[in-house]
Write a structure and sequence with these properties.
561 residues, alpha+beta, six-stranded mixed beta sheet
């Protein structure tokens, strides 16, 4: 354990204990994992017992949390959004969620039972729940959402993940049954995510394309006030919130905060400046070069977590003139990428090279992928030469009168631009002319689904194999889903089929390895790097607890001192 990691982890650990989010046993377990001695742990516990923070730990109601966000905002529609943002954790709830130890725990469902043959799951839905509009939230309402995801007319980009589901039933208001075509051990990992949050489908139908922009109708503790892409998203407390049964949330009733205002801050250096100046209270994604400065600021707590997600770029298989349908050309371009160098130069060591489709944070990760996609400029040039590409007078490769030139689209954000510039320079070193186009989020996604040459993307999902299948499954090619590169690789499809039919953890692990190796070798996209996740808050913020297993923190317990 590095000294930086200890400096990052200990303040967050202490705050979690003082706020009651961690038991004494959990505190000790995590402190040992940070490399602290038992004597040091005992001293910290003693200090916590005498801390004035304990005396002021009675939550206060009121105030608006101001949270800095490192991305622009997508529409708050779980059915067909391309991304879900932190506001999902405030305005919506799912049937189940994860606690900070990765256990599945109740949210809308209070209990569930998996059939002995693994081909159905029955959920007991909490009685008396309502949407923000007052409409009943019962088993039929949950079924309507799940059926909506499966209906191609609704345009869910996640529908292929729902493929193993045969049907849903709601025989009474508190019973929901999901029937499966075959055992689907990964089902809970899917329905816990924001894309399966439960909404009132009648309100969605009434608002049409304006749903998730002008209004939402969920069951979370806050309601939508404003959604302004490029600027902010605001929510206010829902005074009709019936409370939660989720065990790890201490506040079982209405939220303490009057509201939350998420501010998009696309200029990375501004994030640290704003939280140090007190212009915002909490922050996701400070610039990596600012992390040490933030850690040294006694007004702040910096939380460092492993990140599930990675950066990749697609290569459109339709560009046969460039050979993107040829695995040898794709491998050549991948060998041109200096992943360790990028981690050092851009992430300041706060990340890892990505040689396969998922990161080391996931329990399914296999190090066998690390034998693929190593930096080897000589090999890259040789493979491109073997494919018929010859350097022109300006050093750019050409073949049959076609220059090796293509466009990569990225979302407009400081780090994305830095990373794309480095990739551009590294590809130029092997004779490839890459043009980079930086786009606002809406334009980016429109272009990504419209046959772009190359798309650089940072996927975000708490169970990464699930989301990666979306980008490489052949059923999602040619505009049918987010397979931006129109990749069709039978070996990858076979890995996906094995993953989606696994009946137990052993089969899931085996399928996960099969899938990872297929992606690392055949490159339906080119993996690049994984970054660590950083969250920052000022010391007047309590109960704000990002954890390893949820993309964003829940806001039920948050209060301002």
């Amino acid at each position: 354990m590095s000294e930086d990691s200890r400096q990052t982890g200990v303040p967050a650990l202490v705050e979690g204990y003082l706020d009651g989010a961690l038991s004494r046993r959990e505190f000790v377990t995590r402190a040992v994992a940070l490399g602290l001695s038992m004597s040091s742990i005992g001293g910290l516990l003693a200090a916590c017992s005498n801390s004035t923070s304990v005396q002021s730990s009675t939550p206060k109601r009121g105030g608006t949390l101001r949270e800095g966000y490192d991305l622009d905002f997508s529409r708050l529609d779980p059915i067909n959004t391309n991304w879900y943002d932190p506001a999902f954790y405030a305005v919506y709830e799912s049937v189940v969620t994860n606690d900070p130890q990765c256990n599945y725990v109740p949210q809308i469902a209070e209990s569930w039972k998996v059939a002995p043959d693994g081909k159905s799951v029955t959920f007991k839905i909490r009685g008396g729940l309502k949407f923000h509009s007052g409409a009943p939230l019962d088993a039929a309402a949950v079924k309507a959402v799940y059926d909506g995801i499966a209906d191609p007319k609704n345009g869910s980009p996640l529908s292929s993940v729902w493929g193993p589901v045969d049907s849903t039933q709601a025989p009474d208001p508190t019973t929901l049954v999901i029937n499966l075509k075959h055992p689907y051990f990964d089902l809970f990992n899917v329905i816990k995510t924001g894309y399966w949050d439960i909404i009132n489908m009648a309100t969605r139908a009434r608002l049409g394309d304006q749903y998730g922009q002008q209004g939402v109708d969920g069951s979370g503790p806050f309601t939508l006030s404003e959604w302004v892409p490029g600027s902010h998203t605001s929510v206010k407390r829902w005074d009709g919130y019936p409370g939660t049964v989720t065990p790890f949330l201490k506040n079982k009733g209405k939220p303490y905060l009057d509201g939350i205002n998420w501010l998009t801050i696309l200029d990375a250096p501004q994030r640290a400046i704003q939280i140090q100046n007190g212009e915002i209270d909490t922050l996701r994604g400070p610039a990596f070069q600012d992390i040490k400065r933030l850690q040294a600021d006694t007004n702040l707590t910096v939380i460092q977590l492993k990140e599930w997600s990675g950066y990749f770029f697609s290569l459109n298989f339709g560009r046969t003139d460039l050979g993107f349908d040829d695995v040898n050309v794709r491998q050549a371009l991948s060998h041109a990428i200096d992943r360790p160098g990028i981690v050092h130069a851009l992430l300041f060591g706060h990340g890892t090279p990505l040689y396969g489709p998922i990161t080391t944070a996931d329990k399914s990760y296999t190090r066998d992928v690390e034998r693929f996609n190593k930096l080897d400029v000589g090999k890259a040039k040789s493979m491109l030469g073997d494919a018929g590409w010859k350097p022109g007078s300006d050093g750019i490769l050409a073949k049959n009168g076609v220059r090796f030139q293509f466009e990569m689209i990225i979302q407009a954000e400081s780090f994305n631009q830095q990373l794309a510039s480095v990739i551009q320079a590294q590809l130029k070193a092997v004779g490839v002319d890459l043009k980079v186009s930086s786009l606002d989020r809406s334009t980016f996604f429109n272009r990504a689904f419209a046959n772009a040459d190359s798309v650089m993307f940072f996927y975000l999902w708490p169970v990464p194999i699930d989301v990666v299948t979306l980008f490489v499954n052949s059923v999602n090619a040619h505009g049918k889903g987010p397979n931006f590169g129109n990749a069709v690789v039978p070996q990858v499809d076979a890995g996906i089929a094995a993953w989606q039919s696994a009946a137990n953890q052993t089969e899931l692990n085996s399928a996960g390895k099969q899938f990872q190796l297929a992606v690392a070798r055949y490159l339906p996209f080119v993996p690049v790097i994984n970054r660590d996740a950083f969250w920052v808050h000022r010391q007047n913020v309590h109960g704000w607890q990002p954890d390893q297993w949820n993309l964003y923190p829940y806001y039920n317990d948050v209060w301002l001192g």
